[in-house]
Amino acid sequence: MNGTLLLRIAVAIILLTHSVFGIFDNGINDFGNLYLNQIGFAPFGVFIAWSIKLSHIIAAVLLVLNKYIKLAGFVTIFVLIMGIILVHFQEGWFVVGGGRNGVEYNFLLIIVLLAIMYPDGYKKV
């Protein structure tokens, strides 16, 4: 059994729940129209929002299957970093408690993804 199995499953669940609910409650379209388009991504906001959420779903499946882990990780880390830059950084560090909607959750996901991508540490090839 791969040592990253529990982390891969946990991140997959997080990515799926963060994405799938938006499909059914119009959250993806709202994020595209009401946020991304408003901050300068018009007319591509909805397309970008759907691309983000579909990338999360694909990454979740790949993590569970233990396939293309680095590709899934790099794409997801890029999305998370952009989320930090565009949304969370201005809110500070804390998601709850000392603040609201901060970067700490994305930071943790990035570190967990790196641990999954490089379970034995980074080694030059």
TrEMBL record:
Q: Does the keyword Membrane apply?
A: yes
Which UniProt keywords are listed? Answer: Cell membrane, Membrane, Transmembrane, Transmembrane helix
The subcellular localization recorded is: Cell membrane
Q: Look up and give the membrane topology term.
A: Multi-pass membrane protein
Q: Which InterPro entries match?
A: DoxX (IPR032808), DoxX-like_oxidoreductase (IPR051907)
Q: Does the keyword tRNA processing apply?
A: no
> Membrane-crossing residues?
5-24, 44-64, 71-90, 102-119
Signal peptide location: none
Q: Which family does it belong to?
A: Belongs to the DoxX family.
Q: What is this protein called?
A: DoxX family membrane protein
- The species this protein was found in: Flavobacterium piscisymbiosum
